[in-house]
Amino acid sequence: MIEIITNVNGLVNNFVWGIPMLVLLVGTGILMTVLTKVFQISHFGYWMKHTMGSIFTDKHITQHTEKGDQSITQFQSMCTALAATIGTGNIVGVSSALLFGGPGAIFWMWIVAFFGMMTNYSENVLGIYYRKKNDKGEWSGGAMYYLRDGLGAKKGMKQIGALLAILFSVFCLMASFGIGNMSQINSIAGNMKAAFGIPNVVTGILLMLLAGLVILGGIKRIASVTEKLVPFMAIFYIIGSLILCIANAGQLIPALLSIFKGAFAMKAVGGGIVGAGIKMALTWGMKRGVFSNEAGLGSSVMVHSSSNVREPVRQGMWGIFEVFADTIVVCTLTALTVLTSGLVDLDTGVVISESEGSALVGEAFAKVFGQAGPAFIAVAILLFAFSTVLGWSHYGSKAFEYLFGSGAILIYRVIFIVFILCGATMSLDLAWDLSDTFNGLMAIPNLIGVLSLSPVVCRITRNYVDRRIRGRDIEPMLSAFPKIQQAQMKELDDSE
């Protein structure tokens, strides 16, 4: 049975992650970058000030909502989104990209991230603009809602919008068990066994119990945990990586040169033909880039939509920062620790170590930290991957809610928790292949929604820039629904 699943999944995966899909992903980011006048660069200082900078200057960003309010803070939504994106993709994914695509794959990860910033921005803007409250008083938003109520509101598109919304929810549900559960837990279990000799089953049971305590508490408990876990784990890993880069400072320039040379196959991977080298670098860089930051999947918008923010663009800017932190910062540091460690021939791009996945990064850390290196990576993966599981449990629950109603969410959460044990004992290759497939399937309806509603994103962005940056006195665009628009405008006026 496993062999049949693997063969079928391989065929689907090759189809989903073909050149057309990669063109669609990057093309959407390029389009949104052009339409928003390169917002991620032209307003770099502004969005940095109103995301990371605002944590220290604006109490409303981090101030918790009242007990009866089911929304979460902007900082909590960002931390939960980062919890879901900063996972094994930042360690295992990057090392896999280096192994199969060479150093040049990192360049294409950067390209995906640069344009992906505006894809993620657009998703979050649409998520806030088309979100609604469920019968529990929680905000519910995501691709399924802007497909149904945005695309579906266009003439003759009602049924198509509704169908795409259902397809997205189904794919998201499946993805939550792949990218958001089994592949993450599998990496944790493998590393715990390699570093500390803990059996996979024991790791699976312990993680299942820990996750259950958090996930069954809903979004507010998940957000409460991730706002504490994410800053700690990110700083923990960044400091460790910086120590390695400083220790190997003499190899930093050659490592960066190998990335740019490998991207255009000036030295083909493994000595192969130039065209094949470019294709491998581009394909693996893009696949692992998307796996890492999830821009284009429409996943993180579901937690961003739970924020107490009123301005769609404000949450959109958190989406830009999310991709920046995940790929430009964390993934780049992982790549540089491996490339400067001597485990990669920087002239040919060939990995000269027999290690794969997280073991390759662990070996790089061992060059400086000795036997503590693999243990450091095992702990990092434990934190990264477990936080990803928490974030994706919310995404899957929102997809399940859309399909079956809010009253059925508990059923999903219980099944999700049980699957943690399955992830600890299954094949690593199958776990990653399933994750890639579900990623691609999920992105298709979401990107159709983003492309079709790109004029709406542009109007909302222009409206915000005119009001907040240029000081024009015009009515804000806060929601597609008149009642919510009026309520949000009142709250916005009261807060100011």
Please state the structural category: mainly alpha
**How many β strands by DSSP?**
2
Radius of gyration: 22 Å
Average predicted local confidence, pLDDT: 80
Helix content: over 70%
Shape: globular
- Give unreliable regions as ranges: 267-276
Q: In sequence order, what are the helices and strands, one letter per element?
A: HHHHHHHHEEHHHHHHHHHHHHHH
Biggest sheet descriptor:
2 strands, antiparallel
Spatial separation of the terminal alpha carbons: 60 Å
Strand content: under 5%
Helix run count: 22
Biggest sheet strand line-up: 1-2
Overview of the molecule:
By secondary structure, the protein is an all-alpha fold. Helices cover 74% and strands 1% of the residues. The protein has helices spanning 2-16, 19-35, 39-42, 44-49, 59-62, 74-85, 92-101, 104-129, 143-149, 158-196, 200-215, 218-247, 252-263, 274-293, 301-304, 312-339, 358-369, 372-404, 409-425, 428-452, 454-469, 482-495; strands at residues 132-133, 139-140. The protein has a two-stranded antiparallel sheet with strand order 1-2. Helix 17 packs antiparallel against helix 18. It is globular. The termini are far apart.
